[in-house]
Amino acid sequence: MQRTALILAYLLICTNCFAQQYPFVHYTPRDGLANNRARFIFQDSKGKLYIATFAGLSVYDGTRFINYNARNGLATDLVNDVAEMGVDSIWIFTNSNKINCLVNGRLKDFTPPDNYTPLINQFIKCTDGNYYAIADEGLFRLENKKFVKLPFTGVPDDNAKTFLQAVEIDKKLYIISNPDYKRIEGNLFVYDILQDKVFDYNRDIRILYLFKRSANELWISTRDGILMLDKLSARNDLISLKPLPDSFHIPKDLFPSFLYKDRQNNTWLACVKGVYKIDKNGKTTIFTIENGLTTNFQTSVFQDYENNIWFTNVQTGLCKLTNQQLTYYPELKPGLSVTDIFIHPSSDSVFLYDAYHHKVMLRFPNDETREYYNNDPVNRYATFVSANDNYLLSGDTIFRWTTRPGSKQYSLSVIYIDSASGFTSGMRDKDGNLLAVSKNLILAYGNSVISEPVEYLADNLTIDKSNRIWVAPRSNKLFCFEITGTGDNRKFLLLKKIEQILPGSSPRSIVADKSGNIWIGSRDWGLYRFNFDNNLNVKSRLQVTTQNGMSENFVNYLYCDNENNIWACTPSGLDRIKVEKDNFLVENITRSNNIYLPIFKIQQTAKGVFWILTSAGIIIYNPDKKFINDWKPHLSFSNILINNLNKISLLSDGELNYFQNNLVFHLSAPTFIDEKQTRFSYLLEGSGNKSWSSPSTDAAINFVNLPPGEYILRTKAIFLHGLYPDTESTFSFTIRPPWWKTWWFKSLLGLVIVGLFLLALRFYINRKLELQRVMLEKKQAIEKERTRIATDMHDDLGAGLSQIKFLSEAIGMKRQRHLSIEEEVSSIRSFSDEMIDKMGEIVWALNEKNDTLSDLLSYTRSYAVEYLTQNGIGCRVEEPDNIPQDYVSSEARRNIYLTVKESLHNIVKHAQATEVFIKIEITNWLTIQIFDNGIGINNTSPSPWGNGLINMRNRIKELKGVFHIENKDGTVVTIRVPQNH
Description:
By secondary structure, this protein is α+β, with helices and mostly antiparallel strands. Among the domains are: 1-31 and 256-325, no CATH class; 335-373 and 600-625, no CATH class; 636-741, Immunoglobulins (Immunoglobulin-like, Sandwich); 850-981, Histidine kinase-like ATPase, C-terminal domain (Heat Shock Protein 90, 2-Layer Sandwich), CATH 3.30.565.10. A 7-stranded antiparallel sheet has the order 14-15-16-17-18-19-20, with no helix packed on it. Strands 64-65-66-68-67 form a 5-stranded mixed sheet. It has a 4-stranded antiparallel sheet with strand order 1-27-26-25, with no helix packed on it. The longest helix is centred in the C-terminal third of the chain and has 75 residues, at 743-817. It is elongated and about 195 Å long.
C-alpha cells in the first residue's frame, strides 16, 4: 500500500515552527480510500478496518483498499454505521431504508420478512443480548429478523424521532434525539430496555455527543462543556448531571464532538482546536496541524488491535499515529542546527554539536541544557567525541575542546594534524581515550598520539568485546588491530588483514556486536555480518539487503544498541535489524512512521533512549514506552477471482471446470504497523513446483492456464520487522478436466477405438475374402473362358477338322478309284475358310484391346455387311456419329456379337430376305435392331430356328438385357443391353 508522503519541507523553512512533530501516516483517495470525507472507523474480529465515508465504505487490510458504493451494490454512498453479525458477516447501515451485508467479501442485501427497514443511524448490542436500532423513525429492537418499534409513551411525537446516538448504562439506553435537525445540539432520552418504556427525557441539555467512559460512567459533551451522569434521581425519575471533577484533568473550555478512551486509559477528545490526549496523570498532548495532523477538526478517534491510533476527518481523509514513542524535531531549539551528536554509553546526557554556529549544547536527562560557543572557524563536517577529554575532529585536525570556568565560551587546541587526509569518525575506547580514523588509525591519550596506516580512507571504526579495533577502509580490506604496551610504549599491533572483504563493493560503515560478530555496511550491496574463528578467519558471512526489508542498500552508519540490535543508517531511513537463528528481522523505524529523511547517525543513552541525527532535525525514540501488543495477524484469502470475473466461495474449497483456469487469489494479513514490511509467498502443490515463491509485497497471486488437476495453494505471510511470527493459510481447489479428458469419455473412446478396430479388422477380413472371392471368380471366369474357348474350338474347329479329315480320306479313296475329287476339294476349301473365320472370332473376343463399345460395333458392322453381301442380301447400317469408348467386357462382346451373328445367319438361312437394316442406338442401354424384309417368323408352329433362338435369349439374359423377336413386314430382332458391361 502506497502511503501519502509526510510533507516535511515546510518545517525547514518555517522559522516560528519549532514544535515536535508526530509520525502521522496519511491515507487519501490517492492511496485507495473511497473518499477524503471520512466519518468513523470500525474493526472486525479478523483485523480489517472499515472506514465509513460520505462516498461509500472502504475496507482496508494493510495491503489495499476495497471500496463499496452505490455503483457496486451499496444502498447509498453515505454510511451511518457498521456492525459485525458473525464470522465473515458485516452489516452496513447506510443513510437509507436498506441494509447491506458483506458475506465472505460479497455485497448482499438484508431484507426483513415484513420488508420494513427503518433509516438506522446507529446499531448497537445491549447487555440483554438484543440488537437495537437507533433510527430516524424511532427506537427499534431486532426480533426474529424483524425491526419492532418500541413505544415512547409520554413523549411528544415531535420529539420521539430522529434518534442519532445511544449508549447503554445499567440496562438503560441514553439516546440523543434531534427532531428535523433544527439545532446543532440534541435532546436526551433515557429508555428502560427491560420495561420497554421511557424513563426520562430532557430537551434543555444541548447535547453534542455521548461517551461511555466505563461500564457505569457516562460523559455528555454539551454546548456548556463536558458533564457526567450523577445519578437518576429517585424523585420524579429525573436525569441528574454534574460537571467533571478536576481529577480527570479535562480542560473546562473544551466542547468535543467526539470522545474516546484507549486501552492505556488515555482519554482522547476531538474538537475544533485539535485532538487532546490526556493520560491518567493529567499529562496532556495536543495534536494539531502544527505537529502533524492534516486538519485540526477530527470526526473520530479509534485504536486498533495493534494500538495504532487512527483519526478521521471530513477534509483530508484518514490519519494514523503508528508510534507514540517517536517524536521528530525539525529544530530541537530555536537557533540550534545540529550537525553531530554524541552520548557516553553510561550517560543519559547528550552532546549536540552545531557546526554552523560553532555551538555545543549539552542536554541533561531532565531536559535542562547548557550551551557553549566559540568563534573559531571549524569545518562544518566536524565530528564531536567526548572521551577522557572532549574532542572535535575537523578536516585533518583533532582539536581538544575545553570550557572556560564561569563562561559559556569554549576553546579549541590542536593536538594532532594528519596531513595525509581528513578525519571521518572517532570514538572512545574502554579506557576513555580517543580513537580516530582517516587514512590512518589514531590513538590520542593525554598529550600523546600514535598512528598506524590503513592504506586508504576509512569512514568508521569499531571496537569488539575483546577490545580489538576493526577498520574497513574503502579499499575493500579489513584490518584488525590491538593496542599493546602501556604509557609511551603503546603501539598498534596488526592482528589480521583480509583482502577483498566484500564481494565487489567498498565498505562505508562498521560496528561490532556484543556476540563478537563484525557488521560492515557497503556502498551498494547492503549489510554484511561476519563471524570469525579464534584465528580471525571468516567462519560465515550473511548479507541483508532491501530484499530482506532494508530501506536502502547504502549503509553509511552502523550502531549496536544495549540489546545487541544493529541499527543501520541509510540515505532513505533508519532500520533496526534483529537476528534470530541467522534470520534477519528488519524494522523500518522511520519509513514505518512516514518519515523519509537521510539518517546520518544514531546514539543511545544509558536508559535506552535513542537520539537520531537526520538531514533536517533530530528524532527521539523511546522504545520502552511501547504498548504491549497481543494481536497476531491472521492470513486469509480475502478474494478469489475466476477469469477476473466470478468469485469462489471462501467458505469451502472450490471445484472448477476446465475453462475456469485463470485464477487470482488476494491475500490478507491485517497489520497496520509498517505494512510495507509484510511479504507474501506461496507454494502450489500439484503444479510440480516444490519450492516457495520469492517473498513479495504483492498480495495478489495470479495463475494463468492451470492444467486440470487437484491443487493445494499454501500461502505464507512474512513480517520482516519480526513483530509477528510467520503465518500460513491453505486453499484447496480442483480444476476438472474437459469432457474429452474425463474417465467416462476415455472409456467410451476406448470402446469406440476397440469397436473401430474390430470393424476395421472385419472390413479387412471381408475385403481380403472379397479379393479372394474376386480372384476366385476371376479364376473361375478364366477357367470358364478357357472351357468356352476349348468348347468353341472343339465344337467349331474340331467339327471342321473332322470334316476335312473325312473329305481327305474320301479324296484318297476316290483317287485310288480314279474318281473325281473336285467336290471334296471344294468342301475342304469351304470348311477351311469357315474355320479361319471362327479362329478370327475367337482371337478377337480374347484380345483386350477390343474391349470398347466402338470396337464391338465396328467389328459387328463389318461382319454383318460382309456376311450378308456374300449371301446376296443388301445391308444398311444406321449408328450414332460419335460412339463412346466405353469399356465392354470380352464376355459381353462375345455374347452380343454371337447373338447378332446368329440373327443374321437365320435371316440368310430362313427369311428369304433381300435386304437387312441394322439400327444402333446408344443411351444408358445399347440397342441393336435388325430388320429384314423376308417372310417373317411363324410363332405358332415350331420354330425353324431351333436351339439358336434359345441360345440367343440366354446370351442376352446373361448380360441382364432384353431379347425380342416380332413380325413387322418381315422380322424385327431387338437386342437391348445395359451400358455397364
